[in-house]
Amino acid sequence: MKTKITGTTMPVLEIGLESGDRIVAEPGEFSWMTDGVQMRTTALTAGAKSIWGAIGRAFSGGGLFMTEYSAPGGRGVVAFAAKVPGSIQQLEVAAGRSYLVHRHGFLCATEGGSLSTGFQRSLGAGIFGGEGFVLQRLAGPCTAWVELGGEVVTYDLGAGETLQVHPGHIGMFEDSINFDVTLMRGFANAIFGGDGLFVARLTGPGKVWLQTLTVPNLAHALSPYLGAERAPVQTTESGVVGGLAGAVLRDMFGGR
After folding, report:
1. pTM: predicted TM-score of the whole model, two decimal places
2. Is 103 exposed, middle or buried (0-12, 13-18, 19+ CB in 10 A)?
3. Which helix (H) or strand (E) holds 125?
4. 8 A C-beta contact, residue 47 and residue 115
5. Which long-range contacts (CB under 8 A, 24 or more apart) does 1-8 make?
6. What's the confidence (pLDDT) of residue 125?
7. Do 186 and 201 contact (CB within 8 A), yes or no?
8. Of 55, 76, 131, 226, which has fewest CB within 10 angstroms of its CB?
9. Which domains does the chain have, with CATH numbers?
């Protein structure tokens, strides 16, 4: 198997398959492929040995069904392009090890990779609706590719060293990292600070990948050009209540 990542702002991953190679991705992820590539869509792959395993994978942000790509004729090429400006990271996931990845980060993996729910927290979803904050657990043994938004900043945290991060900027981290989501400290910071109600705490040892661009932030930046109606002028009272609800909703969807 030969792989190549081309481009910078909107990269594409090209995978050259040979006989016996198999790549697993979510349905509809591929960008192009040669005639030598064969597709097979099934629920029982990527670590799911039963329909319940597939349902658990779907709750993590992965698909209920996955697509396997192979080249039974001996050779073929399949390509996966990034969905937002950012980068594609290649991971070598050893047996017994795993990474926690943001819910839309998994791009594809070789046979042997497993995708499941690694972390789920409502973050106010019980009151305001929505899916809350979810991380996928990507386990090996496999070679996997993950899509991160914007620029990528990495930290190698030592034992006991802690990094506080807005949940939307978490790209992925090693399973050795101790992870939790807590309320923003300080009533005024949470309500009036504009940074959301929740903050993620990552404690080492282990490596962390942070992403500078989130999909909600991108959508917010583009919204003035999409013909959306302007929001009505708020009174002071409605502004405070709306700001509180908005902070929770932004945290639920990983935005700021």
Report:
1. 0.76
2. buried
3. helix 125-128
4. yes
5. 1/110, 3/90, 5/88, 5/90, 7/82
6. 41
7. no
8. 226
9. 2-252 (3.60.160.10)
Give the type of residue at 135. Answer: L
Amino acid letter, residue 217: N
Contact criterion met (CB below 8 Å) for 41 and 30: no
Rounded Cα–Cα distance for residues 71 and 206 (Å): 37
- Integer Cα distance of 120 and 123 in angstroms: 9
DSSP 132-180: -EEEEEEESSEEEEEEEES-EEEEEEPTT-EEEE-GGGEEEEETTSEEE
Cα end-to-end distance, the chain, whole Å: 40
Q: Which residues of the chain have pLDDT under 50?
A: 124-131, 186-195, 230-249, 251-253
Tell me how far apart the alpha carbons of residues 230 and 224 are, in angstroms, rounded to a whole number: 9
Ranges of beta strands (E only) in the chain are 2-6, 12-18, 22-25, 32-33, 38-42, 66-70, 75-81, 86-93, 98-102, 106-110, 114-121, 133-139, 142-149, 152-157, 162-165, 170-174, 178-183, 198-203, 206-211
| Site of tokens 């991705």 | 25
Residue 50, burial from CB neighbour count under 10 angstroms (0-12, 13-18, 19+): exposed
CA dihedral 243, 249, 255, 256 (to 10 degrees): 20
What does the pLDDT read at residue 181?
A: 85
